[in-house]
Amino acid sequence: MAAASHVSIFMARFDEMRTPGLFRADDSPGTLFHRIGADTRAAATEPASQQAFRFLMLALHANETSAHWSVDHRYAVVPWFEEAVEVWAAVLEPFRHLGECNYLDQAAPGPLFGSSESPPDPSEPIAIVTTSGWIVCESLDMNRVREFSNGVLGVRASMTGIEGLHSQQSFFFPGVLQYDPLTVTLWRDAASARAFAYGPGVHKAQMLRQREQNLADRTSFTRCRILRAEGTWHGRNPLKW
């Protein structure tokens, strides 16, 4: 399948725990992938339950027009998001992408995006999407999955009060490992994100551990400029600092 060029995301937060509601097809002809995920880790629930307070609709698009269509029609695609306390919707354009993911081809995971555009202005807020995946078969060692997941929990806990971080959240799609789980972080600028990712601390230690112990069969990260955003997240506009 052809690589994507843009991303649309809708994040919704509810005051009461719930499971996902109706999910309608995205009729944009350029939509290559779209799924709803639940932040079950933050709700202290099992990923298979899909019970959470926060949800994500992630879509990958062949062109920017398709991504804007998705944001314009977000409540037609995910009507129950209208019941949320707040919703943040955005069109993202990747400027750096490495690794493999199974969103475009489950049988042959690979890069999600083609050649990247130039980096954003150093003062621009950015979004980062990371994924991790496993070859799901009878021989899959679930201890590897649990160890990787424990590392994710540690990284999330370590992010409290990080300079330049607006928010962090992670999501499982229905089927748990059928599609690669992902994290979404929103940052004041790329420098803040790099300082956290590569500076001393839990995240750098976990990256080293992954390289040495191969706890996940594949990973990816994508840094994105935020071309368009609507709504608030955690009570404020992530683009305003």
Q: How big a fraction of the residues is strand?
A: 25-35%
Helix content: 10-25%
Give me the Rg, rounded: 17 Å
CATH architecture: 2-Layer Sandwich
Short description:
23% of the residues lie in helices and 33% in strands. With 241 residues, the protein is of the alpha+beta class.
Explain this structure to me?
By secondary structure, the protein is of the alpha+beta class. The protein has one domain (6-231): Alpha-Beta Plaits, CATH 3.30.70.100. Helix content is 23%, strand content 33%. It has six helices and eight strands. It has helices spanning 40-43, 64-72, 74-77, 142-158, 190-198, 202-213, and strands at residues 6-18, 31-38, 52-61, 86-99, 126-133, 165-171, 182-187, 218-231. It has an eight-stranded antiparallel beta sheet with strand order 2-3-1-4-8-5-7-6. Helix 4 (142-158) packs antiparallel against helix 6. It is globular and about 45 Å long.
Question: How would you summarize the topology of this molecule?
Answer:
Layout lengths: L5 E13 L12 E8 L1 H4 L8 E10 L2 H9 L1 H4 L8 E14 L26 E8 L8 H17 L6 E7 L10 E6 L2 H9 L3 H12 L4 E14 L10
Antiparallel strand pairs: 1-3, 1-4, 2-3, 4-8, 5-7, 5-8, 6-7
Which features does this protein show?
241 residues; alpha+beta; Alpha-Beta Plaits; 33% strand; globular
